[in-house]
Amino acid sequence: MSARTLHLNLFVYPGGHHEAAWRYHGTDPDRLLDIGFYQDLARRAEAAAFDAVFFADGPSLADNVRYASRFRLEPFTWLSAVAAATERIGLIATASTTYTEPYNLARLFASLDHLSRGRAGWNIVTTGAPQAAGNFGLDEHPVHAERYDRAREFVEVVTRLWDSWEDEALVADQKSGVFADTDRIHEIGHSGRHLRVRGPLNLPRSPQGRPVYVQAGSSEDGRSFAAAHAEAVFTAHQTLRGGQDFYADLKARAAALGRDPGRLLVLPGISPFIGSTEAEARALHAEFDELTQPEYSLQLLRRLLGLDLTADQLDGPVPRRLIETEGERGNGSRFRLVLDIIDREQPTVRGLMHRLAGARGHRVVAGTPEQVADQIQEWFEQGAADGFNVMPPWLPGGFDLFADQVVPILRARGLFRTAYDATTLRGHYGLPRPAASPALR
Amino acid sequence: MSARTLHLNLFVYPGGHHEAAWRYHGTDPDRLLDIGFYQDLARRAEAAAFDAVFFADGPSLADNVRYASRFRLEPFTWLSAVAAATERIGLIATASTTYTEPYNLARLFASLDHLSRGRAGWNIVTTGAPQAAGNFGLDEHPVHAERYDRAREFVEVVTRLWDSWEDEALVADQKSGVFADTDRIHEIGHSGRHLRVRGPLNLPRSPQGRPVYVQAGSSEDGRSFAAAHAEAVFTAHQTLRGGQDFYADLKARAAALGRDPGRLLVLPGISPFIGSTEAEARALHAEFDELTQPEYSLQLLRRLLGLDLTADQLDGPVPRRLIETEGERGNGSRFRLVLDIIDREQPTVRGLMHRLAGARGHRVVAGTPEQVADQIQEWFEQGAADGFNVMPPWLPGGFDLFADQVVPILRARGLFRTAYDATTLRGHYGLPRPAASPALR
Ligand SMILES: Cc1cc2nc3c(=O)[nH]c(=O)nc-3n(C[C@H](O)[C@H](O)[C@H](O)COP(=O)(O)O)c2cc1C
Ligand SMILES: Cc1cc2nc3c(=O)[nH]c(=O)nc-3n(C[C@H](O)[C@H](O)[C@H](O)COP(=O)(O)O)c2cc1C
């Protein structure tokens, strides 16, 4: 087995990642709110020795929930129940630095890490959907740069909270009567531009010290944030070249900050349609696309590109010149990615719709198990990925195909573990447990 | 079996409720952060057909953690993992209306209710400990009246969020392609003195519609809040007379607001030391008191009464005239309760220390299983309680004694169920599932 091996997460989404997944006959729409469904899914991923399950999140309701399973399972509660049903697999929760209080967030992660015995990861986002603002008393979603400014301060604060109990602070010596060595518990006394937090946290340091820091924004601000703070990065790329550029850029930025680039894993999304022949895989993909609804996609294009189109424009070209490329929207990496598709492929509106239906801009591959494994190996060996965020088109069937047919090939090629050799998410990712940062004096 | 029967919760506290519980030889201090310990405890309570397990909470670290197990397990993560290990028992999480965002809190409870299939309860508190303020960017803990003012608005907002999806809004019809009937999902458009929240929630209405509303403040403001909003009230009383007065007052307030007083359960705390003889029970209690540490109690008196005493004053009388009875402190019901003990019993400082060590002001009883059952029956039949929040001095042993020895007596007397006849916390408490309040037009 080669020294460097793949990291694989299962990105969980109610129903699956294709926007019409919930309509597919292999999906049971009655189980989308059933925790047993997600526990079972995590057990399957654990049986395949996946590094982690990952839950996305946002504190608002998507405007196109009429046509797709776009409600939001709350990640902390959901993953805590998943933790109780599993032993080894990592648990990555998305949480916003824009719409949470750092003290509350630090507690949720420390507790998740304690109860899972060291399996928590934090996908740090600034929240993409602007409609969240209205749920938190704001007139406007803070602009991109401002969100990242708060994010930087936020990460500093929660890091200090997680480190506010030294590892040796919990004594619990029945004889002497010392429960905690309060000389080893420290206020953090933070006072900054966005936040003021005294601390200390009200919980001993957790098994991993801190959850694994994951980041999922690929804009300029997002990259520089990731280079400084992230230990794993989720990203979306359509082409090997795009993936390589991003990978090289991010590793270089981390190195320039004095970090070991090997401790910053780049994990693009991949949504695989698997068939016993390539034709069968493509037919399966087409079957999903036929279940899509134009109203859903038109709303997506409105939100993503600011394009206000109607159903009778579906078979015309995408009106490129109506897309607003400046300002807030232009900062987003997902926006840039869609713009690249339009410029490269010149699709019709319907073509673009189908292009995005699979995984909202993430790479969709359709092929035999060998072909899918080849794609994965190529990106992994050609400097575009340290592993993948696997986004099955539908669940659980789409994951089972991957686990049963692609994973054995990856193993045979020495690219993926056959069993866990660690018990924490840091262990699976090859990351050290961080020492507590020194206390303020 | 008589129509009216007891409701029993297990109030879970790391180690147990006696402040020295963690030092007792029957307690394993290495398991206080082990989720398996709490899952096992909940399974024991479920085997005894208890209504619920209850977790207290506060977003700050207690100043006397040096001497006692006063860290805070985060209730949502912890109870979600407990939910995964149980089937029927209710799960009551304490959460603050002062230090959380209503949108985030509404999601956590809706998710807990979904994943537990209708077992969530919310202990609504305004947060007692003033040091929380520093963890949330505030100079001062908002004053009592202001906290309750926000609490009233907060409950209105989260109620509307929980009702923002009508029960029929989730359609998930694969054929027609309608996932959610957006005509049945409503913005709440709240704009008030403390909060602005647009909604809707990003999750379908939960099995119970809303979590059970529990309240735990007994001050004037607390009572009027409870009369208006609560479905169960946790309270602390030392004497039957005190319990009866509170019970009658609260039921009358609810009736005056046009509510059915039967749908407002009053559940005082009780901390039982159980022995095969009364002398044995008293000896057990004394054994715990011997493990207490003066430094801990002196800090408690400082915080609770504003008294700054030293160890050499332990055997003198409580300096009653130094206690500040006006202002903020004087509003708190726990303060009043301690003042009553001092006035009634004229204890020494050490005596008061031991009086409070058992359960922080809750009633401590020591006796045979029959005597403990008698006490419970007396309060239940004499108009002081609809049930109890059972606070074992140590865990799990102190609970096992209660479940194995007292519960069978209560059953033999027809006072407590032998098995669950419902599947939700509302069901156990005899409360109806609320219809969604009508949407704003
Ligand atoms: C795999 C992946 C998952 C993501 N999940 C979320 C999410 O759950 N919530 C969210 O607000 N943003 C999420 N994002 C990030 C947003 O899509 C968006 O990129 C970000 O909010 C803005 O950052 P950027 O402009 O730096 O890319 C995710 C991104 C990727 C690549
Ligand atoms: C059984 C019980 C449990 C309580 N748990 C909490 C708690 O977990 N967190 C909290 O801030 N207050 C809790 N309280 C309430 C506080 O003790 C205090 O009464 C409240 O914050 C102020 O309300 P009051 O002045 O109306 O009594 C609890 C009260 C009781 C009776």
Features:
homodimer, binds flavin mononucleotide, two-stranded antiparallel ribbon, 441 residues, TIM Barrel, alpha/beta, 38% helix, 14 helices
Mean pLDDT value of chain A: 95
CATH class of chain A: Alpha Beta
Structural class call of chain A reads alpha/beta
How would a crystallographer describe the biggest sheet of chain A?
8 strands, parallel, barrel
List the helices and strands and how they pair.
2 copies of one chain form a homodimer.
Chain A: E1 7-12, H1 35-47, E2 52-55, H2 75-84, E3 90-96, H3 102-115, E4 120-125, H4 144-162, E5 170-173, E6 178-180, E7 190-191, E8 196-197, E9 212-215, H5 220-229, E10 232-235, H6 240-256, E11 265-274, H7 278-290, H8 294-305, H9 327-331, H10 333-345, H11 349-357, E12 363-367, H12 369-381, E13 387-390, H13 397-412, H14 425-429
Parallel strand pairs in A: 1-2, 1-13, 2-3, 3-4, 4-9, 9-10, 10-11, 11-12, 11-13
Antiparallel strand pairs in A: 5-6, 7-8
Helix pairs in contact in A: 1-2, 2-3, 3-4, 4-5, 5-6, 8-11, 12-13
The structure holds flavin mononucleotide (2 copies).
